[in-house]
């Protein structure tokens, strides 16, 4: 019995030799950290892979290395890129995928499909839409970077914390495959020697249909998810500027159905600290109240305007449909018909406190 | 059938041997003395021409002053010619008149003076005058502790039992002695507290000890290996300790101790895996600190075993797992190194093992230079020459450091050893291989027993009560029960007080 067990221990590994993963030693592979897709024509697109070569030594700075090729499928592009590279190209460490705006308008289904099928690609991958050619964004030098790819990822990630709603491959796929929601992606553009997040791109299915500004993206975030540490500026009726810091918000969506008509209500609770009121007496309760009123008005107005635009485009990035689906009497056909005309209310409740170490 | 035949043969042979010994019994004293005289340190003479007494002893193991002060004067004065009268006259206890030659021989060889009367054939007076070389009780060196007793066992079994009995002055502390080793005749003592220790455990140990057929028992570690439950296991089955305080505490828990003559280490059991990671100093510190230290030690074991193999696995197979910020430093330190990660790791691990081995073998004074050679020359130069990466050097050094935290030396050796299969599997199958190897060792540990008691207890089988003093140590007032592991007939150690009164100040 004992020798039999021993025999199994020896033979099993031998039988299973085919199941062994193939070794990929870290320094012998070309790690792709950013991928860019650009529009060429209806059939072809251009893929760009941004990676970096790290010379030996402790203080060495990575050298940017960009490969690009045109083709009909991403596998074809990868083959072409591989032909140029000195080491085998692997995509397991991709952190950011950039879609050119033109390509996004024509649909990104092919690219998304190849990304989601690849088991070595993580679901925390960031996706963005760029105004310029993706290749130009990847293949350039930014002032404050140790590695271009790392810089690009950092910029987007930092913004997702505070200014734009959270989105990654996983969330994108949830929105994309949901029958009652549409995806959105951050919009980036180059500004001089920097990269800038300039708003959100709103999709209908896999096609970009609209973009919203950076300011609206923040309103979007307030309506979309619970977060802390935001910042919001508002102009009071008297013309003074006030900013709310350390803003935290918690949205709640309610969908009612009355007489076969759907009505959605956003209830938003915003807490924040009023700062930088130069000519204002922030210790005064009335001023605080004025600020609260102004912020409430600003959020409501801008949100209503934004949602109106989504309704016109018949796209639902705020996933109101998902919420409506939770109702037992949900009817998808009715919902689709009514969505663009239905009533969507915003109820913002702002709570501001005076802060700052001097009064 | 062949098996039984061979057993039968052995049985017959043993019987024959016994017969030989019995026939030796009929051997006369003068024949025995004749054999002893072949050694030059055997002294045998007649006291004087007129005296009837012959004196025999090995001068190397006899305290000569006893002979001179308490034996010879009385032989001189004594007018009677019988051994019995002499025995009455000599002011030493433990004298015997023995007529068994076999016994006389044993006494002679363990440091007794044999006095024989001319003409008497089979009788001899045996006077104990043992002279033993022993060093004084010194500080514990292997299990040093900053606080607590600073006594350690020495090589003499009597001194060691003295150290234990001093701490447990109760008649229930039983010492049972066995002689093992056909050549060394080593005295092996089994210590336990009657009524607290499970009789079955004692019988198991005594049975295993009596079954030992081996020519030499030089140290307690021989016993540890010979009576272990699984001879193919790299894990030690009994804890060896040099601290009498630890032995006393373990005895009162209901465990058994084996003390071997000539060995400054006592063996205690039955034991569990976690007990190997508890230093006795844990009981001298407050329970919070002791608990944290134990957990740190346990973490150190995992770190020491897994860190290099994880490094190899991740760098060879799973580049996706490396955090973004660590990627650049790792690649920068790796690129330009001519070896694959596995060779790099094996070279460095072997270097550390070489240093450790060299440090252990060299005399202390030269040993210090080893540290310098290892630390400065090999460490720095290897990195500068581009043979190994900085990151791995740090990992290997930390792993070595972590393996030193194990309080029991034998377990430290095991941990040193089991790193290598992990490394090889990491290279073969990556993380899958590490998991495979880990499962293999886990299965082995699950099956293992110490004196027939589960080795992984109290974690498996889960014994919640025993957890109070295993991975962490709860305060003393909660340690009301002996561990279930030892199957003690009296599980309760003491009755906890229901309501503890606040401690009173002197002013109250």
TrEMBL record, chain A:
Major location (coarse): membrane
Domain of life: Bacteria
Keywords, alphabetical: Germination, Lipoprotein, Membrane, Palmitate, Signal
Protein name stated in the entry: Spore germination protein
Gene Ontology biological process terms, A to Z: spore germination
Entry-linked Pfam families: Spore_GerAC, Spore_GerAC_N
Locations listed in the record: Membrane
Domain Spore germination protein N-terminal: 24-189
A GO cellular component entry from the record: membrane
Top-level taxonomy: Bacteria, Bacillati, Bacillota, Bacilli, Bacillales
Membrane topology classification: Lipid-anchor
Stretches assigned to the Spore germination GerAC-like C-terminal domain: 198-356
Family, as annotated: Belongs to the GerABKC lipoprotein family.
UniProtKB/TrEMBL annotation, chain B:
Gene Ontology CC annotation, any one: plasma membrane
Region (Disordered): 487-508
An individual GO BP term: spore germination
Subcellular location as annotated: Cell membrane; Membrane
Any one Pfam family match given in the protein's UniProt record, by short name: GerA
InterPro entries, sorted: Spore_Ger (IPR004995), UPF0353/GerABKA_families (IPR050768)
Membrane topology, record value: Multi-pass membrane protein
Coiled-coil residue spans: 8-35
Upper taxonomic lineage: Bacteria, Bacillati, Bacillota, Bacilli, Bacillales
Name listed for the protein in its UniProt record: GerA spore germination protein
Domain of life: Bacteria
Keyword Membrane assigned: yes
Assigned keywords, A-Z: Coiled coil, Membrane, Transmembrane, Transmembrane helix
Spans through the membrane: 295-317, 367-385, 391-409, 421-442
Entry's family note: Belongs to the GerABKA family.
